[in-house]
Design goal:
Layout (H helix, E strand, L loop, with lengths): L2 E3 L9 E3 L1 E2 L1 H9 L4 E4 L2 E4 L11 H6 L3 E2 L1 H6 L2 H8 L2 E5 L7
Length: 97
Amino acid sequence: MVYYTNKKQMGCSQTKLPSLSRADIDKMIADGKIIFILENQVIDATDQLAIHPGGDTILRQYNGRQSQKEYDFHSSTAKEDWQKRVVGILTDKIDNK
């Protein structure tokens, strides 16, 4: 299955997103990335570590986790910002433990 994201807000046309497994996400995290899962979207929030209003601790706390509840908490502007950081589509189920 092929997934696309609409990157018009970034001045781009539609872009094909890679399918990512849990193992892919674990590798990204091991490489120092801050990754959130929003339904099946993989979001790279690494560039937010130094500027996130809530600080980097909260970002690290949710790294690699399903984050719908945290997404819903944010403003519409922040939600648009999350969508600009989608880097792939999750192929596995994420279990928040």
